[in-house]
């Protein structure tokens, strides 16, 4: 166990001992708990020395609610405006788990952005015994950074493409992987960047398709960097030098490569964007490049800033890696292609009705077991969310929709009206004879209870427009 860990643990203990928050749980105390440790770790970083995480001081606008669904404990951490109170003046207080609003308890998401006691709140949750304090704290900061740190980011025009793209550009994936490996080697060995510059130059010359990664690289990459820095700052303390923080961050991200990023293709097609941000950001810090965060906010790439004055030198191809990537995406494209074929066939079959849930009229979240698949069919851009588990409340009728492993079209247009909808097919026999509102039915993968309904027909297809 390192000295840095004791520094972090001491910071967490100090928050518990000095908290001014009120205890509204009759059974809670200051004993160590998972939720308390996560909340204290958040306080020891972004609320104590936010500028060391990212040059933005607006973290105090959000409070964090940490709920442990295993031990049924919850803690709240909130910071004060650093312009009005000294850094570190955050309030840590226990909550009654049984009294939490349903949005912080009955959700399948790993986090929720909502309102608690009249203040914007990020809720993060422990669901598995294998969840760690470190990973949960980093996850909380990562998600919060989307709301706090990226409000002034200049983002590329158009929608952010992420998830599975059919068909995949295998050569582009290979070049990005080689860039990542070169950056990782430079980080671990404190070595030169000329090989990374070579792969980056190759990527820029590949095709216009490289621009599809720009938004997700900047959005998820910067958030991943901020999360890693929060972990390091919380452990090292606010008075640690920038050089010391950068060295500890390099070790942390190198460890994350072994435990997380080295399995990039196993858990997300977007994972290389997360790794690129964390590694590039730490390398920028190690090299003492000034003002790079402001340049990222203005629209520049973290990798481009890092490599802008580096002359590329030829690097050796890895034909074995290229072939493994080719085989991986060939099998994956075939698998998701078949799944997409079945889904679109049902959307066009008169044996099915089409359920449409308006994006602006639902409350609740979803988790996906298969991620997103994006492709073009018949000239239309389709984004399919795979294996959704969710429970929605429809705000107009207050009815509920529950999904159990259901695929659906994400942010799609519908005949129900303007705006975007979540769309999925159901067998007609499941809704046969149920012509009045409110609608209720249940099948293996979906349940609808007491939901307002408007039926429409278009080109021989029956639409169930939920309200």
Kindly give the count of domains.
3
Helix proportion range: 25-40%
The low-confidence parts are 1-30
Number of strands: 16
List keywords for this structure.
13 helices, 11-stranded mixed β-sheet, 3 domains, 467 residues, single chain
Structure description:
By secondary structure, the protein is of the alpha+beta class. It has three domains: 3-132, no CATH class; 164-307, no CATH class; 333-466, no CATH class. 38% of the residues lie in helices and 25% in strands. The chain contains 13 helices and 16 strands. The chain has helices at residues 3-18, 34-43, 133-148, 170-189, 194-204, 214-236, 242-259, 264-267, 271-286, 292-297, 302-307, 319-347, 428-431, and strands spanning 63-68, 73-78, 91-95, 111-116, 119-126, 164-165, 352-358, 362-363, 366-377, 380-394, 400-414, 417-427, 439-443, 446-451, 453-458, 461-466. The strands form two sheets. Strands 6, 7, 8, 9, 10, 11, 12, 13, 14, 15 and 16 form an eleven-stranded mixed β-sheet that branches. A five-stranded mixed β-sheet has the order 3-2-1-5-4, covered by helices on one side. Strand 1 (63-68) and strand 2 form a beta hairpin. Helix 1 (3-18) crosses helix 2, helix 1 (3-18) packs across helix 6 and helix 2 packs across helix 3.
Itemize the secondary structure elements and their pairings.
Layout: H1 3-18, H2 34-43, E1 63-68, E2 73-78, E3 91-95, E4 111-116, E5 119-126, H3 133-148, E6 164-165, H4 170-189, H5 194-204, H6 214-236, H7 242-259, H8 264-267, H9 271-286, H10 292-297, H11 302-307, H12 319-347, E7 352-358, E8 362-363, E9 366-377, E10 380-394, E11 400-414, E12 417-427, H13 428-431, E13 439-443, E14 446-451, E15 453-458, E16 461-466
Helix pairs in contact: 1-2, 1-6, 2-3, 3-6, 4-5, 4-9, 4-12, 6-7, 6-9, 7-9
